[in-house]
Amino acid sequence: MRQLGLSAAIREGIVQEMRADESVILLGEDVGKFGGAFHVTHDMLDEFGANRIWDTPISEAGFTGLGIGAALTGLRPIVEYQYLDFIFCAMDQVVNQAAKIRLMSGGRAKTPLVLRGPQGATGRGAQHSQSVEAYFMHTPGMKVVMPSTPFDAKGLIISAIRDDNPVLFVEHKLLYGAASPGGGKALSDSAIQAIGVDVPETPYAIPLGSADVKRQGSDVTIIATLLMLHRSLTVADQLAEQGISVEVIDPRSLVPLDVETIAASVAKTNHVVVVSEDTARAGVSAELVATINDHCFYDLEAPVQRVAAVDTPIPFGPAAERHVIPQVDDIRGAVLRALSD
Amino acid sequence: MTSTVEIRRDPVDCSGKDPAMLLRMFRKMLEAREFEEQLYYLFLTTAMPGTMHQAVGQEAVAVGVVSALNADDTITSTHRGHAHCVAKDVPLKEMMAEMFAKREGSCRGMGGSMHLTDFSKGMLGAFAIVGSGIPIATGAALSARVRGSGQVAVSFFGDGAVNEGVFHEALNMAALWKLPAIYIIENNQYALSMTVEESSAVPNLASRACAYGMPNRRVDGNDVVAVYDATREAVERARAGDGPTLIEALTYRIRGHARFEAAGYRPEKEVEAWKAADPIERLAAGMIAAGAATAVELNRVRAEAETVIEDAIEYAQSCSDVEAEDYLTYITAEN
Ligand SMILES: Cc1ncc(C[n+]2csc(CCOP(=O)(O)OP(=O)(O)O)c2C)c(N)n1
Ligand SMILES: [Mg+2]
User: Of A71, A294, B3, B64, which shows the fewest CB atoms inside 10 Å?
Assistant: First the structure.
């Protein structure tokens, strides 16, 4: 077994799929010669050549459309956005085209397409910090995948590539564990755990829609993704010292969502906290609370607590960013509130 | 504002063209025309759900372009897409069934007029967000390159679509990478109420290709042979690896923008003048002049076109209605 960072794990999954399947191609800004702004695609151009690794102009709507057209005609394109904030330039292509083509064609078309890139607040200001997943979770026809560990990232990117639908694959900048060649060193976060967990070299697929219980517990369940998962694990460690047993669930994909694993945990702990880095209003946390109410209401002994970003564009300054984005203390406070009744 | 495009009424020059191809063009244009004329009546009777956009008067563009393609070449279409489908051999019965939201329709009743699709015919879909099919066709061209398939991809779109950003993004990439793509502007001189002069700073839309160093042509879009010839040249260039072409086909939308839209923003005289430049009649006159067909033969084709559309309507009406829950099957693909 071996240690691998999250970006290296994603890279390995992509490379192995590209070796196994000639129809997998990659498009995006600076993905070839430069190796990707966050280094996920480094050296791929050397191995696969310009016919499979396309260094595109800065044309997000355009190259997303190219990915769709290529997907409709037999390829399995992976489209990289340098920052996921920029996928909004391609909103029409993703929401109106990619997500809808299958239904509009009465099931005759398939669009095997991976849309991937980094997100998350890392001191870059309002337009390079957003968490975008809720927009696409809201879009029927899309799948939304959220890898939080290197092991998950490799298995999930392989499943995403093999999936016959458009899949948004959300990476978190702070989890890459790598410096950004363009933007200086990525901020470190002392709460990030388990980044270097063992990743088997042989290809493996983690089915979309299978949550992972990252930590077993009996008193309260935290549901969280990406960076928030790691902060939640820190909270679980802290509370264990106080004799509180926290179960931490990583859904790993928001669409499809593994409701069964969540419901089983709620039936056991009867207390739930949902944590998400995106903004609260109509966000991931709102959807998770609604889902838990739909499926687990009678198992709950207290209202579900939710921890999410403040409803604001993300401010630049480190102090303000910390205030807006959920921190370890915020999550711990929510757990204690959930248990206080 | 009145359009300033020259209106030509002369017979199409058919010299040197294969009579069988000309006859096929004539038939396809008639089928597209008859399909849409009958739709109009069906909408009047309220037998038909939804809406539709007629390309009456523009048929020579769809048919001229597609006649220069191979069966496995791909196209993308628009909200005004029936003629593209007819030209690309999408079965008329399935098209008509789709219009009635029947299970036997081209898209199983899930797409309707604005989203007709038939992958088996290289028809990648009609995209009703203006301009959005342009990068998708470009992606099909990129895919053809990656797979080494030798296919060419064509995108049809209107004069209004050139003002969407994706037009420029896609043309730049196609020219940059010399992709086997062909862009067809169906310049029917109006984007709903807006004339080209009212919406484009430079009304010669083909000239936009110059910014990308892309070969470009303006052709008489009511002359099916001229459209065919221009497309042939573009296809040869694309298959030879020499990259994309932008063709601006000048034509006219005889009907309103959609269904019952009255098009009161156009001078009556302008519409009448363009009616007299009907692309089907110009081809008929040209074929007779060149000795490629007799009036009797052409009349037989006219009658046959009416019959196939009648049959298509009859078939469509006998098909099964989409059940409320059919759509559940189509949201995502099962691997
Ligand atoms: C992005 C977008 N904006 C507006 C519309 C509404 N709309 C539909 S067709 C149309 C006019 C399009 O004109 P043109 O591209 O010239 O095509 P034509 O209708 O003449 O065939 C408009 C404004 C739309 N469907 N999509
Ligand atoms: Mg127009």
Answer: A294
- Mean pLDDT for B41-49 is 90
A187 lies in some domain: no
| pTM for the whole structure | 0.92
Q: Would residue A277 show up in a list of annotated catalytic residues for this protein?
A: no
Between chain A and chain B, the number of residue pairs with CB atoms below 8 A apart is 167
* Residue A313 belongs to domain spanning: 212-336
Q: Give how far B161 is from chain A: nearest CA, Å.
A: 14
Q: Which residue of A has its CA nearest to B74?
A: A73
* Whether residue A168 sits in one domain with residue A25: yes
Q: What is the pLDDT along chain A (341 residues), one digit of tens a residue?
A: 677 888 999 999 999 999 999 999 999 999 999 999 888 999 999 999 999 999 999 999 999 999 999 999 999 999 999 999 999 999 999 999 999 999 999 999 999 999 999 999 988 889 999 999 999 999 999 999 999 999 999 999 999 999 999 999 999 998 887 333 333 334 455 556 555 568 999 999 999 999 999 999 999 999 999 999 999 999 999 999 999 999 999 999 999 999 999 999 999 999 999 999 999 999 999 999 999 999 999 999 999 999 999 999 999 888 999 999 999 999 999 999 999 97
Q: What is the ipTM of this complex?
A: 0.84
Distance of CA A203 to the CA centre of its chain: 20
Please report residues of B whose CB lies closer than 8 A to that of A86.
Answer: none
Q: Is B309 in the A-facing interface, judged by CB distances under 8 Å?
A: no
Burial annotation B142-169 (CB, 10 A radius, 16+ → b, else e): bbbbbbebebbbbbbbbbbbbbbebbbb
- The reply to whether A17 and A147 lie within a common domain is yes
Helices (H), chain B: 19-44, 59-67, 82-87, 92-99, 133-147, 165-176, 196-199, 224-239, 268-275, 279-289, 295-318
Write out chain A residues lying below 8 Å of B329, CB-based.
107
For residue A273, give the CATH number of its domain. Answer: 3.40.50.920
The strand pair at A53-55 and A212-215 is best described as: unpaired
Closest atom of ligand 1 to B186 CA is 21
Q: A146, A175, A204 — which closes off a domain?
A: A175
Residue A260 forms part of a structural domain: yes
Domains and CATH numbers, chain B: 19-322 (3.40.50.970)
Indicate the number of domains in chain A.
2
Name which of B124, B146, B331 is nearest A52 (Cβ-Cβ): B146
- Give chain B positions within 8 Å (CB) of A54: 142, 177
Give the ligand 1 atom nearest the CA of B158.
15
- Nearest one of B62, B36, B33 to B48, comparing CA atoms: B36
A35 and A122: one domain?
Answer: yes
Ligand 1 cavity residues, CB under 6 Å: B 79-80, 128-130, 158-161, 188, 190-192, 253, 257
Spatial separation of the C-alpha atoms in residues A115 and A79, rounded to whole Å: 5
In degrees rounded to 5, what are phi and psi of residue A250?
Answer: -105, 110
Considering only the beta carbons, identify the residue of A74, A109, A162 that sits closest to B143: A74
- Among B281, B270, B220, B273, which residue's Cα sits nearest to residue B248? B220
Sorted by sequence, the CB contacts under 8 Å of residue A68 that are 6+ apart come out as A93, A97, A98, A101, A111, A113, B135, B136, B139
User: Is A60 annotated as catalytic?
Assistant: yes
| Closest atom, ligand 1, to C-alpha of B132 | 1
